Amino acid sequence: MKDTLIAIGATLQPHGLKGELKVYVEDAYEEDFLQSETVFIGIAGKKIPYFVESIRGGNALIVKFEDVNSIEAAQKIAKKTLEMRQQDMIPDDEREQPLEADYKHLDGYILWDSTLGEIGVIREIIDMPHQEMAVVSFNSAERLIPLNEQLIVSIDEHKKILKMNLPEGILEI
Predict the structure, then answer these.
(1) pLDDT(39) > 90
(2) What are the backbone dihedrals phi and psi of residue 165, each rounded to the nearest 5 degrees, phi first?
(3) Which residues fall within 8 angstroms of residue 50, CB to CB, at 6 or more apart?
(4) Whole-angstrom distance between the N-terminal and C-terminal Cα of the chain?
(5) Angle at the Cα of 138 (from 136 to 144), degrees rounded to 5?
(6) Which of 46, 81, 97, 136 has an alpha carbon within 20 to 30 A of 163's alpha carbon?
(7) Which pairing describes strands 20-25 and 61-65: parallel, antiparallel, or unpaired?
(8) 11-23: pLDDT as tens digits
(9) Other CB atoms within 10 A of residue 78 CB
(10) Sequence-separated (6 or more) residues with CB below 8 Å from residue 25
């Protein structure tokens, strides 16, 4: 039986001189990747297994694969599709990723700041890589306001008002 491979992201450019690579992993597969021991990279039409030695990083994931010990070796597998075997994926009922808050329903609500009062009507909610943003017109300019639990004071579903504690200066950005 042939293994089913699923594309989860891509290798990017080498990082440093010791064979590490920056990688991009789709959000839906990040937990799978962080717990994986083996990934597959397509080289010359073949899917070659690579064993994960270490993963680190904040904004970007930096990966060290076994036997990739130089910038030259890393360049050979840079900018390639990263795949995992389907049987190595975490079953849905065992995933630990927390459910993210969804603020789409706030479209059309009035945004209030606890200090400044009424800011304006939320014209749109847009998805950014790490959070949702409210698009609001303020002083004749479009502003993006991050929607996260730390800034939200209350949501009045009946009056359609979102009350927030906005960081000082955010409306000038």
Answers:
(1) yes
(2) -105, 90
(3) 38, 39, 40, 41, 65, 66, 68, 77
(4) 56
(5) 40
(6) 97
(7) antiparallel
(8) 999 998 999 999 9
(9) 18
(10) 8, 9, 33, 61, 82
Residues 6+ apart with CB under 8 A from 158: none
State the residue for tokens 């014209």.
123
Q: Which stretches within 21-167 are classed as H helix?
A: 30-34, 71-76
- Domain range enclosing 117: 104-166
Report how far residue 20's alpha carbon sits from residue 66's, in angstroms, rounded to the nearest whole number.
10
CATH of the domain at 125: 2.30.30.240
Flag whether pLDDT at 152 surpasses 60: yes
Tokens standing for 6? 């699923």
Burial class (CB within 10 angstroms; exposed 0-12, middle 13-18, buried 19+) of 65: buried
Name the domain boundary from 90, 125, 147.
90
Residue labelled with tokens 């950005």: 173
Q: 36 and 54 in contact (C-beta within 8 Å)? A: no
